[in-house]
Every structure is written in C-alpha cells, then in structure tokens.
Design a protein that fits this description.
The complex is a heterodimer.
Chain A lengths: L6 E7 L3 E8 L4 E7 L5 H16 L6 E7 L2 H7 L6 E6 L5 H4 L24 E4 L2 E2 L5 E3 L3 H14 L3 E5 L8 H13 L5 E4 H4 L5 H31 L6 E4 L5 E3 H6 L7 H16 L5 E6 L4 E7 L2 E2 L1 E2 L3 E2 L15 E2 L4 E2 L1 E4 L5 E5 L5 E7 L18 H7 L17 H16 L3 H23 L11 E5 L3 H11 L4 E4 L6 H6 L4 E12 L5 H21 L8 E10 L6 E5 L9 H16 L8 E12 L9 H4 L9 E5 L5 E7 L9 E2 L2 E4 L4 E4 L3 E5 L5 E5 L4
Parallel strand pairs in A: 1-4, 4-11, 5-6, 5-9, 9-10, 13-23, 23-24, 30-32
Antiparallel strand pairs in A: 1-2, 2-3, 7-8, 11-12, 13-14, 14-15, 14-20, 16-19, 17-18, 21-22, 24-35, 25-28, 26-27, 26-28, 29-30, 31-34, 32-33, 34-35
Helix pairs in contact in A: 1-7, 2-7, 4-5, 10-11, 10-12, 12-13
Chain B lengths: L6 H25 L3 H4 L4 E7 L4 E4 L11 H11 L8 E4 L12 E10 L2 E11 L28 E5 L2 E2 L1 H9 L4 H29 L1 H25 L3 E9 L9 E10 L2 E5 L15 H16 L13 E4 L18 H18 L14 E8 L2 E6 L30 H7 L2 E8 L15 E7 L3 E7 L20 E4 L6 E3 L7 E4 L3 E5 L14 H9 L5 H8 L11 H16 L7 H7 L11 H4 L9
Helix pairs in contact in B: 1-5, 4-5, 7-8, 11-12
Classes of the chains: A alpha+beta, B alpha+beta.
Chain lengths: 701, 616
C-alpha cells in the first residue's frame, strides 16, 4: 500500500539547519534536519531530500509538491547583496526614499546612522509628470523624457528598475505606461516593477520603499529559484514548487520571482500558519505562538483560528518589536506580513549587568559560535542555556539527539564567578533568576502581539515551538496567567511542517479614500469587483480552479482624522453590495475591542480595500501517530531539577509517547530529538489524539 | 549600588514599567485623531510614583523628558489628600500648573492599589487647537497668554469616575476643532485607563512595600550614576552663546547665554545673561528650560542612566526671572518650542567642549512650524506641518539628513496624505544642492518643501529661525546655510521673515517654499577626503564648481579626484585665506545664487559668531 503513497515536502531553510518534512497522503510523516549550505542552498536541500527518499525508499515520482520557506530575501537585504537597481519617480521627489519618515528607533542619541537607501541618489531619476490626489492628470507624461531615463539607466548598468510616482495609488496609468516603455527601451531581461501593481496604497515613502525592495530582490531571487528548480529536477523531482509568502499564503516560484517583496518574511511565517491550522483542527482557536531558538524569540497571535497580520513592517532593522514606536531602523515594507513580534532573547543570550547593576539577559548573543559556555567551543560568557543546564531543564550531558557533548562543570564555574557571586545568591536561585528575567523579556514579545492590541493573553493558549520554546513556555504562561500550553508534535521542525498546512492564498489591495456612507458607496463596490476579478485572474495563473477560490472582503477603516487604520471584514448584502451599516459597526466594535472606546458619532473613513482569495487544503489526512512517535519506553530515568519557588525535585525524564490522555502531574521533563519540554510541579501534562502535549496549570486555591 | 530589591526583581519591575509607558504611547498614537499627534508624534507618556516623581517615560518625544516633574509637583501639592480612585486630572497652564504651553494638554490619572495612592499615569498631547487668536493656538505674534487660548488650571476631568461635563463643554466651546480635540483627549483617557489596569496588576503581584522600596532605590541609583558621570568631567566653567534671529520684519536678536559649571559630582546650568522676555509667543516657561538641560545631558553622557527622576538631583538650573527662558505671567509662550531647540543647540555647544566626540556641530535648529489655514468648500482646514532633518557634522562623520532633530523624534507627514486631506499640492520635497556647512566632515544638506495653494485663499502662520544666526560649525567647520521662507520663488519672489508677526495672506496658485537651514560642518573643509567630495558630486549633493571652489577638489572628466590639481587648488585657497580678514563665504554664494538670493545682508563677523568654538 505504501507504494502508492504520495508525499508533499516542506523545506524550511534556516541560518544553521535546513528542516525537511515529508507528509504522505496516507498519514506518514518523516522529518530530517540537515546543515544549511549557504554557497548554494539547493545543494543542501537536494542532499537532504535525497537522503530521506533513500531511507524511506521513496521514488522521486511520488513527490507531488514542494513547498519552500526561505530567508534568502531577508539576508540579501541585510547583507546588501541585492541587484543594482534604479528608481523612477515624480519631479521633486527623488529623496523621498532617503528622508523616509524621519523617525528613528532610539532616543537621546546624537550619532544615529540611518540605513543606506537600497537605490543610491544618482540612480533615482525624476519625470516631469504629476497626478493629483484624486488621480487627475496635472502634468502629462512625456515619453521622450522616459526614453532619456531609459538610456541613462542602461548606461549606468542597472539590472532592475522600480517605478513609483506620486499619487499613483489613485491612477496607475502613468506608472504602467512608464514601466512598459522602460521594458521596451532597456536591455532584454531588465527587471521592471511599478508601485501600483505591488501596492496601490496611499503614503509615498512606504510605497516607494516597497517597490524598491522588490526591484532590489528581483534579479537575485530569480536566479535563486531558477537554480533550486534545476537542482530538484536533477534528482528527478518535477513536482510544482511553491514558496511561502510573508502573510502565510503560498505562491508559485514563477510569481515569487516577479514579486519577491512578498516573501521577505517567508521563514518565520510557516510555524504560525501551522499553529493556526492546528488551532482549527484541535478546537483551541485562540493561540499565542512562541517560537524560540538560539538568538531570538518570536511571538504571534492566532485568534478564532486566523493569524493576525499587519503591514506596519520594515526589513533590515534587525529586531522587530512589532511596535511603531521603534520604527525607522530599516526599510519600510508595507505588504501584509504575519504580525510577529521578535525579541533578542534566546538560548544563546548572554547574561550581564547594565549600568544600574540590574541583571540582563540578551540581546547580545553567543550565537552558534562560540555558543554557550557549556558547548566548550571557546564561549566565555554565561548564557541562558548554561543556566538552564544548571537548573536541570536541559540534559546536562549532551544536546538531545545531537552529537554535541556538554561541559556542565565549566558552565557552572563561569556562572558562579560572573553572576552568582555578584548577585550574592546561591547558584540555583541565581540560575532560576536568569531564567525568570529571560522569560520576562519574552513576555514583552507576547504582550506586543496581545495587550498592545487590546487582547488579554489569559484568553489564549500558549503554543510553544522551536528548540527552546517548550523549556520556557510554562514560566511565560505563569507570568501572564495563561492556563494552558500546547507543545505540538515535532516542535523543533514545526515550521517545515507548517508549510504543508498552508492553503493557497492571495491578497490584493487598492486605496479607496472616502467616508463610509457617503454617496461614493457605489465606487467602493466597483473597486471591490475589480479587485476580485484581478484576484481570480492571478490565482488562475497559479493553476487554481476559480470555482474553488473563496473570496473574503476587508476594508482598512479609521475614524476621520486618525492616522492608523484597523482592518475589518466586509460582508456584502444579499444583493452583493457593500453593507455600509455593517462596515461602520464592525469598525466601531473592533476599535472598542482594541482601544477600549468607540465614537459612534464620528465619520468612518475608508483608506484601503482588500480582497483575500483562499483555496482550502484538500488533503486533510490524520497523521499516523504510531509511525510518528517512538514506542513508550519509560525507564525510570530521573535527574534533579530546580523549579524556583517550587523547590528542587528528583524529576522523571520521559519521552512524548510515555504520556497519554490522562493528566499526569508534574514535575517532569519530556525529552525529544531536538527539544525539551519542562513541566513544573504545579502543571500537568496530557497527550491529545493528534500527538500534541497539552500542559495545564493547576487551579490555585 | 544600594542593597534591597534584588537585581532580578528589579529587572522584572523595570521591564513592566517601560512596557506600560510604551503601551500608553501606542494607544495614543493609534487612536489620536490629529495629524500633529499621529504623524509628528508631539506627545508624551510617563509613569510617576506616589510622590509624583517620574519613574518611566514612553518612547516618544525626548524634549518632553522634563515636562512631567514640575507639573506633577504642582499637582501633588494642590491635590494632597483630595485624590480618590476614579479621579482624572486635566491642565495646560504653564504658569499656575507647571505646563508647557496651552496646546499641550496634560491628562493624569492617580492609580490606587488597595485604596492607597501608588502612582500616576501621565499623558501630554499637543492638541491641534485650544482657541486663541490664530488657528493652531501657536501664533508667534501673541503678546500675552490671554490671547493664546483656554487656560486650564489643575482640575478634575473625572471625579471618582464621573465625568465633569461642565469642563468638557467649556473645552469644546473654546477651540476651533472640537471633534478633533475631544478625540485626542479620549485617546489620552484610554491610555491612562489602560496603564492603570496594568500598573495595578503589577503591584498586586509584587506588593506595595517591594514596589515602593524599588522606586526609592532606583531614584537613588539614577542619582548615583549621574553623579558618577559628572564627576568624570573635569571641574570648570564651560560657556557658549547662541542666538535666535528675532521676531517680525526687523528682528532684534535674542541672545542665549549659557554657562555650564561642573563642580565635583554636581552640575549647574546657568542661563544668566540671556535676553529678557519678548512681546511675542516664544517665551519659554521654566519647566521646558529644565527639560532641555536634562535632555542634552542624557544625550552626550552616552550612558544607560534609568529614567528615574533621581537623576535630576545633581543638576541645578539657574535662569533669572524675567529672562526669555524663565518668563513671568502673562508673557505669551505658545511657540516656546523654538527656544527649546535653541537651548539644546546652546547646551550642545557648551557640552561639546567637554565631550567633543559625542557632540555634533549645530543642525537645522529644530522644527520649522508652518500652518496653512483657511476655509475650503465650506469647511475649515488647518494644515500643520513640522519640518526638520538636517544634522550637523560630528568630528568623525558627516551630518545626517533624513533623521529628526534629536530633541523631538517626530515623523514627517506623507505628501499624499496631506494632498488627500487639504487643498494644497506639494511640489517639492528634497535636498538642496550646495547647501549645508562645508567641513572636513560636512553638515547635512538643507531640504526644501514647497506647497501650492489650491483653495481660494488661506493664511500662513510661520515659525522658523536660523537665517541671520547660522547653525554653528566646530573646529574650523563652516556654519550651516541659512533658512528661507519664500512666496512664489523666482525673479519676483517675496521673502518672508523667519517669524512673521501676522498671518500672511496667500491666494490660489501661490507657492510657499520653505528651505531649511543646512547642518554645520566639523573641521577644515580643505582637509576633507577628496574621495568624499567626489562622491558628493557623483550623488548631485554638490556641483563640481562647488567642489573646486569650496573644497579645492578638482575632478577629472571621469569624476575622480585629480591629485595634483587638487593639491595646487588647495594651496591657492589656503593662501587666499591668509590674506583675508573676514570669514570665507564662497560656499554661501554657490548656494544662494541659484535661489535668486543674495548673500545675507548682515555683519560678517556676526554671521559666523556662533562658529567660534574652534578658536576658543
């Protein structure tokens, strides 16, 4: 029977490891971690796939789809390795890209350096055209000027051109004409992209920056995907290859090569999408995900089974706290991304003291090299991982499932000399303090996606993934008074699994400035209709059957005069027209949920209209848990583990399959291939029918 | 370090306090109705302890750092014993309530845990209008505070949870944009309410006793850290003088005279010698004067002293009563921000002598504040802009453009947003060629922002500076270039004063052009790396002529520096300098001629008055 099983492959390329997950249409689930090969990512990927296919005796023809998440786009920007790109804009505005929105992410500094623009000033050229805010032509486009610019850009040797004209969100005719003319006049293969195609939204800096990012990435990503597809064909895989977008949908490699700006946050999105899928199937619709690895912790919110998205985003700024207060360190990218807040705290975070003598954990990290002291690879700075080893949370002898031997005595000596002696407390209390401070820092990431948006974390379940997420999860949950934690199957490679739980989804937007309820409602219906048609065309190009596409409408609304919009769903009336009363009410309700008040008398203004088309997954197959889990083998292994106020306990060490549907009271440690789940004495663990560990806090009396 | 709260609990509480004040800032940003809050971010949030001392400050406007201490002291002493759960206070008056200027409206909520007062959630929002003689309530030409709008002493906006409807109605009736003002006040109320909830949860967890002990320790630690920093600076007096051009058509210069005295681990900021108060709205009440001092010191000391008010204890501000930075009622003060910017420049000038590597030459001189207001299609409009972004050079790097003035971390407003809301067309927003002060490291270029009026008519209210008294250079770097306000640029252009003492009428089709001051240079321009000069020519920042005349850098046909020709040209400039009495203004003619502007008609030595740091 296995001979007929077909597989979809999820590939998550990270900085150190490439995670692979094979999911069969009969419930088989195979995973593998292989080293990432930055010189040619395709080589590492095909090597890993080849190994798994050989181990499981799977012929290439049985691979039905490949879905890929990649950090190549982000890294291209961070490392400044993008294409030589030009920008064509309206007369008087070549410096918009460099002025940005001015604001910087630090206070009390006289030495801040703004990020270098991705297109230098000499390649930012102006055209004498001009449109008004209503889209009317104030100064016409002169093709001779365009031709002159084409010659100039060709002469300069640019590989790609971004076109972004003032007020093009209201009328894209000039941009289309310019883009077509440039394509005609410039050397074949020049990558030309225009803003109204990518993001027809008001705010010139954000739109320009987004378009420039697309131009900067275009040629690089085109080469990358080209080589990946070739490598896969080299091992006989001809299945369609799809790429995860920053908003959690997928697009074909062909589309991704044209619109790489959509895949900048491809990597971190997959895990959240997987969590959302699990939320829908396991009746835990409201989750906060916590993905913690070696250097950062990332949090995101899933509400009612839906991921929460934002377009207040920038790339290249390093850490993103999902907070507009700290914007300005990178390049604005105003395409929908899953709203992920990131904090510089992970296992490798260094323990230190600030000027006021207060203990800090991170954001400085020992990274993968030299790594924590216990790795014995030259690290001299005590890290969170070292403290977690002392506490007994992490196996003190070797990294679980890995070849790496740990040096606990060395870590202990460093922690004592550099931290415990200064704090003036015994080792176990000091280490638990470090652990609490780290958890407190991560709490900020969780709050950034919940309380900062008016959501109460107590209404959510914490979803822990990544190598270290399940170690800290209960501590974070306790701080936020969250009663339940879920640790999914394969938490260490969960992102790659998430790729396979992704519906095909596309989103298009168009600015539409108007008061909801004014006579312009008719215009709104027209814009929605046009957007939907474009969406269906686009998805048809990707091979979707239009009958299977489910379309939802949204509007970005605000009270007249506010700067920030809230996105709310728009339900058409029976006659298919926009229901204005429903829009106003949905907005006011969302405003109240988010900010605690509503102003029913104030006019509601629409800024952008959005349509999202979704094709649901058609292969909902239960995972064959027997093959996914090892047989229960409880051997009575224990070790001494410190739980802070709950004291030290000789604690049983289990594996996942030792748990079952009956709650088992802590303390216990569940060790797996590449993660450890810590269950303190006041928590209990069960295994649900899908293989997830569910942790529940004991009701305090 | 004092003993008491362990470093771990301290970190957890501190994290929580800053997260609460940032959260307040986010609530206001997302829910405010006015452009000045949402885009310029002219507002602040903070938390105070039960004695009204600041213990956290949201990431908003740095210059507001000192906006809470004086106000909170007045509030605490006025309301002692008469504060109950559910109360919310409101005030704005700079003279009786310790406020800033009338548009800055404070809304403050006392926070109670188990019936005990434990702290205050504080917000301050620059409201778009508070009445008075001009839209926006910041007319430079007000003569006394009675002309500037509604004065609110410390009053209860909510009394044990019950709204004071009388006060709400009074405020609504006394401003031009009641919906917007009430919307922004609501966002403040939402922010303090949110903060209260989170603060109470925090104290319930750690207990009042632990919290109060932690607060005292942090005040003491901040003080100790500040003392340590000051003690590192050699004792002595460090003086500096800077200027504001003055008011109206025929401005009289305003002198800012500063002496910073370092005595052991204490510091005095002494403004004695500064000009007296003026009959215009740029007088600066003392709370803002103190704030400028604290902020400047925090910027240059480059350390992570926590934002606990204890750090202000070793710093004393002296400003004789009746001088422009400590005016007496009823001096008008709505446009006092200008003095804030210039006090910062003066402070950095003095502190630069102590810490030259941390302190840049002068930048554009703060936010230019144009207001275009009128009626269009039957509706009132007030288009308020805050323009900034041309930094001075450091001793090791060029001045930055495209970042805000360090005093106020505001944003610019999107051109498209303005055009979608107001009857104006913005025709230019970009760098100005050959602008900024030359130097081994040059100042940031000036920027231009140009508006065409689409309404039939409107009034223009303007607050700018730095035309006659240029941003000062450092170590032989040239001063920055002058700012201009021009109506209808071209041969028949009309030049407006930096601060016109009236609303300037403009008509449909008129163009209003603001050119900012350019940042000043640092070090001798003849020592600038020719490669950097070639790069500036390549990027159209300066012309090849300018490179040769100002920097002595001669480029080849390919745009590369010609070493031999450059050496000769530099020798020639150096020789010409030796024979010259006044300062070299070649760079100004390059800049001004294309703008149809003559070199400023002013005494030469005074033009360069502020650039004298190098000589002293």
């Amino acid at each position: 029977m296995t001979t007929t099983e077909h597989f979809r492959i999820g590939i998550d390329v990270g900085g150190t490891f490439t995670d692979l997950v094979f999911a069969g249409n009969r419930g088989s689930l195979f995973t593998r971690k292989v080293p990432t090969t930055p010189d040619n990512y395709g080589r590492g990927i095909t090597a890993g796939i080849g190994q798994l296919m050989a181990m499981r005796d799977i012929a290439p023809a049985r691979i039905s789809a490949v879905i890929h998440a990649t950090t190549v786009a982000t890294n291209t920007i961070l490392e400044g390795r993008g294409a030589k790109a030009g920008l064509v804009t309206t007369q008087g505005f070549r410096d918009v890209l460099e002025f940005r929105r001015l604001r910087i992410p630090e206070m009390y500094t006289l030495t801040f350096k703004r990020p270098e623009p991705l297109v230098p000033r000499n390649l930012r050229l102006e055209l004498g055209e001009r449109l008004g805010a209503d889209g009317r032509v104030i100064a016409p486009l002169d093709f001779d000027e365009v031709d002159a610019l084409a010659a100039q850009l060709t002469e300069a040797g640019v590989e790609s051109v971004a076109v972004c004209l003032i007020n093009s969100y209201a009328n894209k005719a000039h941009e289309i004409a310019v883009a077509e003319r440039l394509t005609e006049r410039m050397p074949e293969g020049t990558f030309v992209t225009y803003s109204a195609d990518l993001l027809p939204e008001i705010r010139e800096y954000e739109r320009t920056s987004t378009t420039v990012i697309n131009a900067y990435l275009g040629p690089v990503l085109k080469r990358y995907f080209g080589s990946l597809v070739t490598e896969l064909k080299g091992i006989g895989i001809h299945a369609p290859v799809q790429v995860m977008k920053s908003d959690g949908g997928v697009m074909s490699v062909a589309q991704a090569a044209l619109k790489p700006a959509y895949i900048v946050e491809s990597g971190p999105s997959a895990g959240v999408i997987g969590a959302a899928d699990l939320a829908r199937t396991s009746d835990l619709p409201d989750l906060i995900t916590l993905d913690m690895g070696g250097t950062t912790a990332k949090a995101a919110m899933v509400e009612g089974g839906q991921v929460s998205k934002t377009s207040d985003y920038e790339v290249g700024a390093g850490i993103n706290l999902s907070s507009r207060l700290q914007m300005g360190g990178g390049h604005a990218l105003k395409l929908p991304v899953i709203d992920i807040s990131e904090i510089g705290a992970g296992g490798g975070s260094i323990v230190d003291f600030d000027g006021a003598g207060v203990l800090t954990v991170g954001p400085k990290s020992a990274g993968a090299a030299p790594g924590p002291v216990a790795y014995d690879a030259g690290g001299e700075d005590p890290t969170l991982t070292d403290a977690m080893i002392q506490l007994g949370y992490i196996n003190p002898d070797y990294l679980v499932g890995g070849e790496l031997k740990l040096n606990k005595p060395k870590a202990q000596a460093v922690l004592k000399a550099k931290v415990a002696d200064r704090v003036g407390k015994p080792m176990d209390q000091t280490c638990h303090g470090i652990f609490q401070v780290a958890a407190g820092t991560m709490v900020r990431a969780v709050k950034a996606v919940s309380t900062y948006r008016g959501r109460d974390p107590r209404d959510f379940t914490l979803f822990a993934m990544g190598g270290n997420g399940p170690v800290l999860a209960t501590e974070i949950a306790t701080t936020l008074e969250m009663k339940r934690v879920i640790v999914p199957l394969n938490p260490g490679v969960f992102s790659a699994y998430g790729l396979l739980r992704t519906p095909i989804q596309h989103e298009l937007t168009q600015s539409f400035i108007g008061i909801v309820g004014d006579e312009d409602n008719d215009g709104m219906d027209r814009v929605f209709a046009a957007l939907e048609q474009r969406l269906l065309d686009l998805m048809a190009e990707e091979g979707c059957n239009p009958d299977t596409v489910k379309i939802a409408r949204f509007a970005d609304l605000r009270y007249l005069g506010q700067a920030h919009e809230l996105t709310v769903p728009v339900d058409p009336t029976a006659s298919g027209l926009t229901d204005r009363a429903q829009m106003r009410e949905a907005f006011s309700a969302e405003h109240e949920a988010t900010y605690g008040h509503r102003t029913d008398a104030a006019p509601v203004q629409s800024v952008n209209l959005r349509v999202i088309g979704t094709v649901a997954l058609d292969d909902d197959v239960a995972i064959d848990l027997k093959s996914a889990l090892a047989a229960p083998t409880e051997k009575g292994r224990t070790r001494l583990v410190h739980f802070g106020d709950h004291g030290a306990h000789e604690t049983p060490i289990l594996q996942r399959s030792d748990l079952n549907g009956t709650p088992r009271k802590g303390p216990m440690i569940v060790e797996e291939y590449d993660t450890t789940c810590v269950v303190p004495p006041d928590w209990a663990a069960t295994l649900d029918p899908f293989g997830n560990i569910i942790l529940t806090a004991e009701e305090t009396v | 370090m004092t003993t008491g709260t362990d470093p771990i609990t301290a970190q957890v509480i501190r994290n929580a306090l800053s997260s609460i004040s940032d959260e307040m800032a986010l609530v206001i940003m997302r829910t405010a109705h006015s452009a000045i809050v949402r885009d310029s971010m002219d507002y602040s949030t903070g938390l105070c302890d039960r004695q009204g001392r600041v213990i956290a400050h949201g990431m908003t406007m740095a210059l507001h750092l000192g906006s809470f201490p004086d106000a909170m002291q007045r509030l605490v002493s006025k309301t002692q014993g008469d504060t109950k759960p559910g109360d919310v206070f409101i005030f704005n008056d700079p003279y009786v309530a310790g406020g800033m200027h009338l548009p800055d409206v404070y809304i403050v909520k006392p926070m109670f845990v188990a019936g005990e007062l434990e702290g205050y959630a504080c917000t301050l929002v620059h409201q778009t209008d508070m009445g008075g003689l001009a839209p926006g309530s910041t007319a430079v030409y007000a003569k006394e505070i009675y002309q500037e709008g509604l004065r609110i002493p410390i009053l209860k906006l909510y009394d044990q949870g019950t709204p004071n409807e009388t006060l709400f109605e009074m405020i609504a009736l006394n401003n031009r944009l009641p919906e917007m003002v009430s919307g922004d006040m609501r966002s403040q109320i939402a922010a303090v309410t949110n903060a209260d909830r989170a603060f109470v949860r925090l104290l319930e967890k750690y207990g009042s006793a632990t919290f109060r002990a932690f607060v005292e320790e942090m005040h003491d630690r901040s003080e100790a850290m500040m003392r340590e920093e000051i003690a590192r600076i050699p004792d002595g007096e460090y003086s500096f003088t800077d200027y504001v051009d003055g008011l109206g058509e025929d401005p009289e210069e305003i002198v800012l005279q500063l002496t910073v005295r370092v005595m052991g681990d204490e510091m005095e900021i002494d403004w004695t010698g500064t000009s007296g108060e003026v009959k215009g709205a740029i007088n600066c009440p003392i709370p803002f004067t103190k704030a400028a001092g604290y902020m400047a010191i925090k910027c240059v000391l480059d350390s992570d002293i926590p934002n606990f008010e204890g750090f202000t204890r070793p710093i004393r501000t002296i400003a004789p009563e009746g001088c422009i930075v400590n005016p007496r009622p009823p001096a008008a003060c709505a446009a006092r921000a200008l003095m804030g910017w210039r006090m910062l420049d003066t402070l950095f000038g003095a502190l630069g002598r102590i810490l030259p590597d941390n302190t840049p030459a002068a930048g554009e001189g703060g936010v230019t504040f144009p207001v275009i207001a009128g009626r269009h299609q039957g509706r009132a409009f007030v288009c308020t802009e805050t323009l900034a972004g041309a930094g001075g050079a450091l001793s090791w790097r060029d001045g930055e453009h495209g970042i805000p003035n360090p005093g106020g971390n505001g944003t610019n407003q999107p051109v498209e947003m303005i055009e979608a809301q107001f009857p104006v067309l913005i025709t230019r927003y970009g760098l100005v060629q050959n602008s900024g002060g030359p130097g081994k490291y040059r100042g940031a270029p000036a920027f231009v922002r140009e508006y065409r009026l689409l309404a039939d008519e409107a009034g223009l209210i303007m607050r700018s500076d730095r035309r006659r008294h240029l941003p000062y250079g450092v170590d032989g770097g040239s001063p920055g270039t002058p700012s201009y306000n021009i109506i209808n640029p071209g041969p028949d252009q009309q030049i407006l004063p930096v601060m016109p003492m009236l609303q300037v009428p403009i008509r449909s089709g008129d163009i209003f052009c603001h050119i900012s001051a350019g940042g000043a240079g640092n070090g001798d321009p003849l020592e600038r790396d020719p490669e950097l000069v070639a790069q500036d020519v390549f990027l159209d920042i300066v012309t090849a002529d300018y490179a040769a005349d100002v920097y002595g850098v001669v480029l080849t046909a390919e745009g590369r520096p010609d070493a031999a020709a450059t050496q000769a040209k530099r020798a020639e400039i150096a020789a010409a300098r030796a024979g010259q009495t006044g300062p070299d203004t070649t760079y100004l003619s390059h800049y001004l001629a294309p703008l149809n502007l003559a070199n400023p008609v002013i005494e030469e030595e005074r033009l360069f008055h502020c650039s004298a740091i190098a000589a002293e």
